[in-house]
């Protein structure tokens, strides 16, 4: 009986429920995160206009998509709520790079994670391939938000 109750509870949950949380637009600052046009973004500029004749001060956000680097803008009344993505950064040890561009990573609990592609950023991609080919022990930082994951940083922890 309890299994079906759990299943029933899961089906009621909103699909994007745990991916974002609401935050008042006026409290979001530079270097914070915001969802614009359904994409998780890092805020690079915030400007707030004065209260207009319709009674709301407006926040103008300029932000960069954290996965593809595209610049997005949005204007929201400062008293309204915006979606803010839950952004997590996790470090994994790099084990292998496959021929088709996927990486094999070692998790902290000893399992492997094989569902991530190499980053599209040419500089980072070059550093990863160069370090791996020269036999260095590499730790990659994986940034995840709203169901997407991408390698965003690299640390060299010395030779194997």
Automatic annotation (TrEMBL):
Function, as annotated: Translation factor that promotes translation elongation and termination, particularly upon ribosome stalling at specific amino acid sequence contexts. Binds between the exit (E) and peptidyl (P) site of the ribosome and promotes rescue of stalled ribosome: specifically required for efficient translation of polyproline-containing peptides as well as other motifs that stall the ribosome. Acts as ribosome quality control (RQC) cofactor by joining the RQC complex to facilitate peptidyl transfer during CAT tailing step.
Gene Ontology terms, MF aspect: ribosome binding; RNA binding; translation elongation factor activity; translation initiation factor activity
UniProtKB keywords: Hypusine, Initiation factor, Protein biosynthesis
Biased composition, class Basic and acidic residues, residue ranges: 1-13
Residue segments, region Disordered: 1-22
PTM summary: eIF-5A seems to be the only eukaryotic protein to have a hypusine residue which is a post-translational modification of a lysine by the addition of a butylamino group.
Positions of the Translation initiation factor 5A C-terminal domain: 86-155
Species of provenance: Panicum miliaceum (Proso millet)
InterPro entries associated with the record: IF5A-like (IPR001884), IF5A-like_N (IPR048670), IF5A_C (IPR020189), NA-bd_OB-fold (IPR012340), Rib_uL2_dom2 (IPR014722), Trans_elong_IF5A_hypusine_site (IPR019769), Translation_prot_SH3-like_sf (IPR008991)
Record SUPFAM superfamilies: Nucleic acid-binding proteins (SSF50249), Translation proteins SH3-like domain (SSF50104)
Protein's UniProt name: Eukaryotic translation initiation factor 5A
PANTHER family in UniProt: TRANSLATION INITIATION FACTOR 5A FAMILY MEMBER
Top-rank taxon: Eukaryota
SMART domains found in the cross-reference section: eIF-5a
């Amino acid at each position: 009986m309890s299994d079906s109750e759990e299943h029933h509870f899961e089906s009621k949950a909103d699909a994007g429920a745990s991916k974002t949380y609401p935050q008042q637009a006026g409290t979001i600052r530079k270097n914070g995160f915001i969802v614009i046009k359904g994409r998780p973004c890092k805020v690079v500029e915030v400007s707030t206009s004065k209260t207009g004749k319709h009674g709301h001060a407006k926040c103008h956000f300029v932000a960069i998509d954290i996965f593809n680097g595209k610049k997005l803008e949005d204007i929201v009344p400062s008293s309204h709520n915006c979606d803010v993505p839950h952004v997590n950064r996790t470090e994994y040890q790099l084990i292998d790079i496959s021929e088709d561009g996927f990486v094999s990573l070692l998790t902290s609990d000893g399992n492997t994670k094989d569902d991530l592609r190499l980053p599209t950023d040419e500089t980072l991609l070059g550093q990863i391939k160069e370090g791996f080919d020269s036999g260095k022990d590499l730790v990659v930082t994986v940034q995840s938000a709203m169901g997407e994951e991408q390698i965003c940083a690299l640390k060299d922890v010395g030779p194997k």
